[in-house]
Write a structure and sequence with these properties.
Elements: E1 8-13, E2 16-23, E3 26-28, E4 38-52, E5 62-75, E6 81-89, E7 92-99, E8 107-113, E9 116-119, E10 124-127, E11 140-143, E12 168-170, E13 173-176, E14 182-188, E15 196-201, E16 206-211, E17 220-223, E18 226-227, E19 230-236, H1 239-243, H2 247-250, E20 266-271, H3 273-276, H4 308-321, E21 325-328, H5 358-367, E22 371-377, H6 382-398, E23 403-407, H7 422-437, E24 441-445, E25 460-463, H8 471-474, H9 482-485, H10 522-531, E26 536-538, H11 543-548, H12 550-558, E27 563-572, E28 576-583, E29 589-595, E30 600-605, E31 615-622, E32 635-642, E33 647-652, E34 657-664
Parallel strand pairs: 20-21, 20-26, 21-22, 22-23, 23-24, 24-25
Antiparallel strand pairs: 1-2, 2-9, 3-8, 4-5, 5-6, 6-7, 7-18, 7-19, 8-17, 9-16, 10-11, 10-13, 12-15, 13-14, 14-19, 15-16, 27-28, 28-29, 29-34, 30-33, 31-32, 31-34
Bound molecules: 1-deoxynojirimycin and calcium ion.
Length: 666
């Protein structure tokens, strides 16, 4: 507490200061703000330790262990109350504001949150611009003092960008201090509150919360009793503690879904990449590419992807290779001018194009033991989506679709709202709840980034909410170090539908004029199934491309998506990651190792395997001459017999990776 009665906090790690004395407080639109003139009335200390069982996850059991301290504050003169609650974990600290039930305060409006994070030095950071509508950027790696959005290239394929301040970044913000501390600032349980971005003071290395406004310019409409999301600061001298942390999930409420038996992990294929590479189109007329919205013309050109016949081809492929699901985009009327016009009635989510026989497709899928995945592109027209949601879900249930992929490309309607504002946060959470009530799973694209809500609604099975593999198809793409950063940032909040598994790396196979490419080797695309945790994973490339490389495809067929345990063996944000995971339903283990633009040699001990057992290891690695740009498809596969004493050398090419399956020998 300062002499003005302003609440402050500071954080030390192993006797080192990490957060200098930083202020806490909330500004209100009306009346006296909750920023100063406070006294501590009393405080409470407690300890919590439990294990819980996620429905799907990287671990079959998660420990939630922390010490808690609640400070009950009272404002002089107004007598207003504010509680600030701290939870201290091994790998970090979390705190939030709580607004107790009060007679004098009922409804209130937050005009600003004044949470400071004053850092102790000019740390190295991995940052994304503080854009209110998109996280689909490449990471910038600079010192705090060098953060400046005006200096970066924003010709990056992101159609809608809302950047109002050149010194604002998104969280999670991953940092490393000069003396080797890993620091991550994020938030958990963002519910009925806007997303927090961070304003950067590049001179003093201070960060201040910036809440995304509503259409009115206000930040949050609340009523007592209520709470803010948790503000989290993870700290360790070992990067593996951060990438493996379950703190964000732990800070969310337990599952509100009682019967979770219908929530199932899934690998899927789909009519999807072929639109992104320009082979076919979403719209019936066939006038689109991945970055235009078509001509509005309804004369078919024969390039429509979502036809009954093409869907059957994917269903056959899924059935043959053991995939549970098939996604079909562009099945419904509305794609003729689906974005760019801020148009309200875009899709009704129930009317198929005339060449997509929904009954026939679903009958055929059922006969092959495959589930169809629904697609709802809202184009940001959210009021329209909510109006149609019940009928859209009825259609899904009628035809037995267990899951939907949703999308939010474009400016939001209600007009004036941003993707990251309170109203949209409420929308994304509302859809998860409504889908849960109907026993349906959801995977949202272009939503605000998850903050652990999948613990509470485990049917919120995945989200995109970062720059996915698709950008490699039609933009300048993802930098080779991209996938080494995501596990330290985006993935802390929940699974990502990254859509890995692209084998035809260079887009000139579709059109000699194209220079776009995936910025990895083929072997790294395999490793991503292990390094990028998600219970929903796509094999994103075209069936005919997989047919050409069936030996490498075997890894995608074998790799599970739900795990007993996971161990991060090696980790350095922006450089490399090596993780091993034990299948939830067998004794098999799987390894994924990836590197950035630099080649990497390493040796690991297989001591995670059970003792006194032999395993057949199938190693999918970069060829000696592999290179993400010069020779991305060079790979080789070898089989070895190993035990938990074996030391294994991994050789990763520039932009490369290694994937290994370990199956016990009976
Ligand atoms: C963006 C999504 O991320 C992508 O996967 C989808 O194909 C398009 N929107 C169209 O809905
Ligand atoms: Ca996207």
């Amino acid at each position: 507490m300062t002499s003005q009665g302003e609440p402050t906090y500071q954080v030390t790690y192993k006797d080192k200061e990490v957060i200098k004395s930083s202020k806490l407080g909330i500004s209100l639109k009306d009346g006296v703000s909750l920023t100063k003139n406070f006294a501590i009335e009393n405080s409470e200390i407690s300890t919590f330790d439990e294990n819980w069982t996620p429905v799907l996850g990287e671990e079959s059991s998660i420990r939630n262990h922390y010490n808690q301290m609640i400070f009950h504050l009272k404002q002089n003169a107004t007598n207003k109350k504010l509680d600030i609650v701290f939870k201290v974990y091994d790998e970090g600290v979390a705190f939030r504001y709580e607004f107790p039930m009060e007679k004098s305060v009922n409804y209130f409006v937050i005009s600003d949150e004044n949470t400071e994070f004053k850092l102790t030095g000019d740390h190295n950071t991995f940052w994304l611009p503080g854009d209110y509508d998109s996280q689909e950027y490449n990471y910038n790696e600079t010192k705090i003092s060098e953060i400046d959005i005006s200096k970066i290239n924003r010709e990056n394929g992101i159609a809608l960008q809302t950047v109002e301040n050149n010194f604002r970044v998104q969280s999670p913000l991953m940092m490393k201090s000069a003396d080797g501390l890993y620091i991550n600032i994020f938030e958990a349980a963002v519910i009925n509150y806007p997303v927090m971005h961070l304003d950067v003071d590049t001179k003093s290395f201070g960060l201040t919360s910036n809440l995304v406004p509503n259409a009115t310019g206000d930040k949050a409409y609340l009523r007592t009793p209520s709470t803010t999301p948790w503000r989290t600061i993870m700290i360790s001298d070992d990067a593996r503690d951060i990438v493996g942390s379950k703190m964000i999930l732990n800070l969310n409420e337990p599952s509100k879904i009682e019967d979770t038996s219908w929530i199932k992990p899934m690998k899927y294929v789909g009519i999807w990449w072929e639109m992104h590479v320009g082979k076919s189109t979403w719209d019936y007329a066939g006038s689109q590419n991945a970055q235009n919205a078509g001509t509005g013309n309804m004369i078919p050109t024969g390039k429509h992807g979502a036809t009954t016949e093409n869907t059957k081809y994917y269903i056959d492929f899924a059935a043959k290779h053991g995939f549970e699901g098939v996604l079909v985009e562009g099945w419904n009327v509305g794609w003729e001018d689906w974005f760019g016009n801020w148009k309200e009635d875009v899709f009704d989510f129930t009317t198929p194009y005339s060449d997509f026989d929904i009954a026939e497709v679903n009958k055929y899928a059922k006969s092959k033991g495959v589930k169809m995945i629904m697609h709802h592109e809202t184009s940001g027209s959210v009021g329209n989506y909510e109006r149609h949601l019940d009928r859209a879900m009825d259609l899904m249930k009628k035809y037995d679709y267990p899951a939907v992929k949703s999308g939010y490309v474009g400016r939001i309607i209600p007009r004036g709202e941003f993707h990251d504002g309170q109203a949209m946060v409420n929308h994304f959470n509302f859809v998860a709840q409504r889908m849960a009530a109907n026993k349906l799973m959801v995977n949202s694209h272009e939503s605000s980034r998850p903050t652990g809500y999948s613990r509470t609604y485990p049917n919120y099975i995945a989200a995109e909410a970062a720059r996915g593999n698709e950008f490699n198809a039609w933009s300048n793409g993802n930098l080779p170090y991209h996938e080494t950063i995501l596990p330290f940032t985006r993935l802390l909040g929940g699974p990502m539908d990254y859509t890995p598994g692209i084998f035809e790396i260079k887009m000139n196979v579709y059109d000699p004029a194209k220079t776009n490419q995936v910025h990895t080797t083929l072997a790294k695309q395999l490793a991503l199934y292990v390094t990028m945790y998600s219970p929903l994973q796509m094999a994103a490339d075209l069936p005919e491309n997989y047919e050409k490389y069936l030996d490498a495809f075997q890894f995608i067929k074998d790799v599970p998506v739900d795990w007993q345990t996971s161990k991060y063996l090696e980790a350095e944000p922006g450089d490399y990651l090596t993780v091993v995971r034990n299948d939830k339903n067998s004794e098999s283990w799987f390894l994924g190792a990836i590197t950035d633009e630099n080649p990497r040699n390493t040796e690991i001990t297989l001591d995670f395997l059970s003792p006194n057992k032999k395993y057949k290891a199938i190693i999918y690695q970069d060829g000696k001459d592999a290179h993400w740009e010069k020779n991305p498809k060079s790979y080789n596969i070898k089989t070895e017999t190993v035990t938990n004493k074996t030391k294994m050398k991994l050789m990763l090419a520039a932009g490369g990776g290694t994937a290994v399956s370990f199956m016990p020998i009976k």
